[in-house]
Amino acid sequence: MLALDIPITIPQLADECEAKGLIPTNCEKLAQMLAKNFNVTAEEVALLKLNGTLLGFVFPEKLKQVGSIPLNTTTSVAARTAVTKRSEALNNFTATKHASVFEAVHLSKAKPKTIQKLMSVPVIDTAGVVGVIQICRKGTTPQDAGPDFTNSDVQKLLGFANQLAKCFK
């Protein structure tokens, strides 16, 4: 009997990633799975790892080279998420004061779209915050980007972040 393409779950993927950490192939798998769960593309998923007082992108790969985000940056949603340990959904992201240097990086050959909506959750283990996961919806307008993120979406992402914390060590 042939093995069927059985979908892997977030906890199974977390176990798989724990040994090797957030290497590029694991990050790609995590992004694909998170994207599928929130009906976005993988390039609308960001994984940031805390290194001392800096948050660095581990996915998307292209954002690694752009630089890190100091936790004391007042215009960074990711930094605010890490410092306050609070999750949030920003369904009018373009009106939110934020660092836009990372948005200027073209992740694909398609015409760049603007982040219209964003969810940001801390990744917390027993030692405290180890990273941040963000899911966004891009488009030319908020309506074009898709549905608003709900409190239920934020709770779902937070649950995934809790399961994935062991990958961020």
Q: Characteristics of this structure?
A:
globular, 6 strands, 169 residues, single chain, Beta-Lactamase
Descriptive notes:
A six-stranded antiparallel β-sheet has the order 3-2-1-6-5-4, with helices on both faces. Helix 1 (10-20) runs antiparallel to helix 2 (24-38). The N and C termini lie far apart (38 Å). It has helices spanning 10-20, 24-38, 77-84, 142-145, 151-164, and strands spanning 45-51, 54-59, 68-70, 88-90, 114-125, 128-139. 31% of the residues lie in helices and 25% in strands.
Summarize the structure.
With 169 residues, the protein is of the alpha+beta class.
CATH architecture: 2-Layer Sandwich
Rounded mean pLDDT is 86
Structural class: alpha+beta
| CATH superfamily membership | GAF domain
Biggest sheet, in brief?
6 strands, antiparallel
Number of helices: 5
User: SSE order in H/E notation?
Assistant: HHEEEHEEEHH
Instruction: Tell me the Rg in angstroms.
Output: 15 Å
Total tally of structural domains: 1
> Poorly predicted ranges (pLDDT <50, ≥5 residues)?
100-106
What general form does the structure show?
globular
Percent of sequence in beta strands: 25-35%
Helical content band: 25-40%
CATH third-tier fold name: Beta-Lactamase
Distance between the termini: 38 Å
Number of strands: 6
Strand order of the largest sheet: 3-2-1-6-5-4
